[in-house]
Amino acid sequence: MNARKLLAGAAAAVVITALALSGAAPAFAAKGPGKPGGGGGGGGKELAYVALGDSFAAGQGGGSYLDTSCYRSNNGYPKKLDASRTLKLTAFPACAGSSTLDALASQVPAIPAGTQRVTLTIGGNDVGFATVMQNCFVFVSTSSCEANLATAEAMVSDGTMYARVASLVQAVRAMVGPQAKIVVAGYPQLFHLPSQYAYASRVNTDTSLLNDQVEAASVANGATFVDVEAAFTGHGIGSPSPWINGFSIFNTTAAFHPNATGYANYATLIAPALG
Questions:
Q1: Catalytic residue, candidates 192, 195, 235, 257
Q2: Long-range contacts of range 69-75, CB-CB < 8 Å, 24 or more positions apart?
Q3: Cα 161–chain centre separation
Q4: Residues of the chain with pLDDT under 50
Q5: Which of 55, 166, 234, 253 fits as disulfide partner to 217, beta carbons 3.0 to 4.6 Å?
Q6: pLDDT of the residue at 220
Q7: Closest-CA residue to 123 (of 167, 177, 81, 88)
C-alpha cells in the first residue's frame, strides 16, 4: 500500500509539473531570415507582431518546441501566423503556466516599441486549469474536483476574470497605442461528448462561461475576440479526429492541449482578425 501511494504521488507530481509550468521564464525574441517569396527580413511590409499568453498561446501540446521552460512551439499558432507574408513575430513572451497576473508582470513589459499586432490567449491558469485537470480527469478526487470547479466558477461569476482580463488588455493597449490591433483568442471545449469522463460536460460548460467573460472584457476595452469553440466542435478529446491531446502518462506535457492540427486551425481562425 505504501509503495502504491508513493508511485501515485510521484506520477501526480509529474502531471502537475507538466500542466502548471512556471510563467517566469524570460521572453523569447523571435529571430530568423526573411520568408520565402518576399515580404520578410527587412522588406518593411510585414506588421510587427507579438504573442502573449499561456500554454495555449505558447503552443504546448504541438511538439517541435523552441524551449522546455515555456513550451513555445514551432507548431503553435504564433509561429504559424509568423509564417505569413504579412506578419513578423518580433517577440514571443507567451509562456506555459502564465496567468493574467503573470502576463501583466513579465509579458506586457516585453512588448517592443513599434508593435502593430498582438495576440493573447489567457485566463485558464487564473481559474486553476492544472488542478482541475489533475483532480477531475487524471487522479480523480471527487471532493477536490468539486472544490476546484467551485472556485473556478466563482471567479468567473463574481467578475474576477472580467476585471483581470480587462486590466491586462488595458495594459497591452497602453504599450502598443491606439492604432495597433489586439486579438484575444478563446479556448476550445476540451471534450467530445458524450464522454467517458464524469466531469467533461461541466468543464466544457465552464470553459464557455470563461470565454464569455474574456470576450466581454476584451471587446469592452477595444480588442477583437476570436471564438474557436465552433471550429473545434467534433474534434475534442475522445472524438474520431481529435485536435486536442488526451492524457497519456508517456507524454504528460501535451495532455489537455491542442495538437499541431488544432494550433493550425487556431491560426486560420485568428488570421482574418489581425488584418
A1: 257
A2: 69/21, 69/22, 69/25, 69/95, 70/21, 70/23, 70/25, 70/28, 70/94, 70/95, 70/96, 70/97, 71/21, 71/95, 71/96, 71/253, 72/28, 73/263, 75/260, 75/263, 75/264
A3: 15
A4: 1-17, 22-23, 32-34, 36-43
A5: 166
A6: 98
A7: 167
Which amino acid makes up residue 43?
G
Q: Are 52 and 95 in contact (CB under 8 A)?
A: no
Residue 257 designated active-site: yes
Percentage, residues of the chain above pLDDT 70: 84
CA proximity to 49, closest of 88, 92, 106? 88
Asked whether the beta carbons of 44 and 38 are under 8 A apart, the reply is no
String of DSSP letters for 252-275: TTTTTSB-HHHHHHHHHHHHHHH-
Residue with cell 497576473: 101
| This prediction's pTM | 0.88
pLDDT of residue 85: 87
Residue 177 in grid coordinates: 497605442
pLDDT of residue 216: 98
